[in-house]
Amino acid sequence: MPPRRPSTSTPTQTPKNPFTLAVTFANSLLTPKIESNPDPLQSIRDSTSLYGFYMQATIGDYRPPFPSASNSSNKDVGIYERTAWLKWMSHKGMSKTEAQKLYVEMVGRLMVGYGVEDGVREDIGV
After folding, report:
1. Residue limits of the ACB domain (predicted)?
2. Residue 7 is assigned to a structural domain of this protein
3. 12-49 pLDDT, tens digit each
């Protein structure tokens, strides 16, 4: 058998997607900071804003019913679920690309506000 020729092609690197990185950083670094915020209203505003952009960026204009105890098996639907739903609905008509861009920008702003290291923000391009 003849020896194999070395490949002349170079492996291509997949560019890092800023939205995917922002989601990863938000889940691992930012969410614990938001949840430990001593101001519960600010915590709800920050996390539901992220949720609204995330849902619009990943699902788009799909409209589930308003979360309430009357249309849910969960009778403890609270202000968080309703606020998160309203944040998502406020982005109706926004493209997924625009929602991804705004999500990344918001993660960058929140990282500054919550004191998450700058190197992470550079990774997502903000």
Report:
1. 19-107
2. no
3. 444 578 999 999 988 888 888 888 888 888 888 899 99
